[in-house]
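new request in #modeling-help
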Amino acid sequence: MIENAPIDPVELREAWWLLTPEDRIQGFRLLGAEDGEEFFFDLAPRDQAELLLILTPAERRLWLRILAPDDAADVIQETDDEEDRGALLAVLDTATRKEVTALMAYEEDEAGGLMSSRFARVRADMKADEAVSYLRKQAMGAEQLETIYYVYVLDAQQRLLGIASFRELFGAPGDRLVRDIMQTDVVTIPEEMDQEAVARIFAEQDVIALPVVDDQGRMKGIVTVDDIVDVVEEEATEDIQKYGGVEALDEPYLRTDFLTLVKKRATWLAILFFGELLTANALSGYEDRFRAVAGLVLFIPLIMSTGGNSGSQASTLVIRAMTLGEVRLRDWWRVLRREFAVGLTLGALLGLIGALRVYAGPLIGLDPADQLLRFSMTVAFSVVGIVMFGSLAGSMIPLILRRVGFDPATASAPAVATFVDVVGIVIYFTVAKLFFAADMARAVIDSCLK
Amino acid sequence: MIENAPIDPVELREAWWLLTPEDRIQGFRLLGAEDGEEFFFDLAPRDQAELLLILTPAERRLWLRILAPDDAADVIQETDDEEDRGALLAVLDTATRKEVTALMAYEEDEAGGLMSSRFARVRADMKADEAVSYLRKQAMGAEQLETIYYVYVLDAQQRLLGIASFRELFGAPGDRLVRDIMQTDVVTIPEEMDQEAVARIFAEQDVIALPVVDDQGRMKGIVTVDDIVDVVEEEATEDIQKYGGVEALDEPYLRTDFLTLVKKRATWLAILFFGELLTANALSGYEDRFRAVAGLVLFIPLIMSTGGNSGSQASTLVIRAMTLGEVRLRDWWRVLRREFAVGLTLGALLGLIGALRVYAGPLIGLDPADQLLRFSMTVAFSVVGIVMFGSLAGSMIPLILRRVGFDPATASAPAVATFVDVVGIVIYFTVAKLFFAADMARAVIDSCLK
């Protein structure tokens, strides 16, 4: 490498987890102000914490202070050592430190971790005029308010009495009391509510901000909808990755380091591999049948993957509908009826295609033509059975998992497919026996005569 | 059914698509005001349009007017007949009709279809005081403004000159000109931008509303972030359904009628079925090999589904990362390197598990013990090959699809799995030949001697 070549932030990020602390400091300092800022913002909170702790106190102060209070709280929460926490908190100004400490009491993915304590507050016995000018003072203060669109009416114990929109306050006669303007029918969010549930409430309410209260009804902060957009994207990404049979990555794909990527994928892959080993056991139980009629082997992958695909469809639809609250446990009977009907229809359709394709040949060079009809019937009826089974299993397994207290997304499409594969073998060779009973019996006799 | 029994809205909704127009009117009227309103809001726009057209003009007026202008526009857009459109537009008041007509020029999923024209506007040469009281008038008007948090500064041609936050206007000295307060560095959204792109901008900007402009820079409306939460959820659902091998449903699972559900699933299922038929062709090419060593059949499902699972993982991760803009076409080489390394590692891990499991037996009753080592080697090396191939194909196919102009999500996990299945058979029997060459040769000789 050429001496003093400018550092590429992307390359630095990629190599980050391989670097020694000294190299990290050097590399980061070489980035310069603009690239450095972007690089720092893009680091995961844990990496930010590690970097801050090895920088000089002056640098630490500079970089920690450019973070918003909730982001600073995330960073400080990543340090386990009490002394390190102190070192980081020490560089914040008093007001921010107070706010950060309050936020640190919450998990990152609960309402308290999303909220801002910079909301506009008034008292119930203020006149509209007083409230507006009091608000003007708050809005002009050093701490920027998150929104002045909603104004929160609190009592002396910080309990939330009601909400007025700024528009209502602004448009009311000047001497009207806030108490008579505010709405008391207020949707609030408990401080420990999971962020996915918070997002659901926002989607239903179509509002810009919602107040967060503790179990005493005391107001702790507000969550604004712009943070919710990020939450919804993040949760959708996690769900999609689970459906794909990967544990949720916490960082973007290209930023996830190699070992983490392997670990997140190996777990499920190994579980599915063990599950799929059962197909070998299942098949070995039918070895006499496919020895007798070798052509049966040809359709094993077709039957199994068709079952897997229909299972994937059903489980994906049902899991997503459960996530969105469209399907609940008590809907199981309606789901079952639908999937029975849909599975039967799809199975009949594919069975017909399969039968025609097999009968039309030329697919099997080795088998006499008089077996073609029987092969096509075997494929047709197995496909009907396996598509129905796939649809029913794919739709019911997520509901059963929820019933016994697991996350329905555990039944990711690949997991359902693996389960359906094993049963598919049983269905296939059971159907095959109906059509090839004579050939199978003859093979048994032959082997006895030998 | 008991005469005059109250109608269950859920049952009515389920049976809706089976009912005659007369039954629909009867059923809807029996719901009563409260259930009726909820039922009507929950209908899809097309069903709302059909229902409105068969109701009396008085009822039509009542129900259409309870919809927000953008929802009313969606409903009217669902009617193709010019006369029907007229009948629906006629019941709106003049102001709303004008707004609805303007919104109808846009597709439902583009920025124009999301926006509201009820935004706060001021002129650049107003003083701050004037602007605030002008705003007060707008806020108090009959048409409720969507937000007064941002104030838009327009010239006589309705071109957007700048934006001031209400807070800035409110806090400025009264005689300061809006021109000197406003910010001119404004992020705008073109009126025809796709809603997914709009959501991406909101996620980056962390703002509450963004202005929509036409290609002349004239301001047409604002999109507020509360609508974006719905968009993000909707797009995530579509993506998830595509990954699951289902065409995106436009309505919730339980509300989708039977025929639509079958159609949305049958298309992909049939395409995959045709693809999977190729596995039978591929297998028939190796019939001599598995006739010679019948035990090879036992591991076909294991090999294939392991390849499919690793392909699903890679394609899910890469497609989602592309959707989020984390992976771009020019990153292909970085993705390829990662997947090569990850595939090799995962393949080696699973290959080891597979070899140990097969060697440990007892899995195969029929094969002599001296073949166990060879079976376990065959499984191990095939698994390494297939997991690597699955990871590479799963990650590269979405990038190739994007390169040639298709939606990467077309390469849904099941589609990649089907492709990998066919190649898996080739890999498996190629490896098997290395270990079982002698047995295979002997079988050929035997059959010639017969």
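bot summary: The radius of gyration of chain A is 31 Å.
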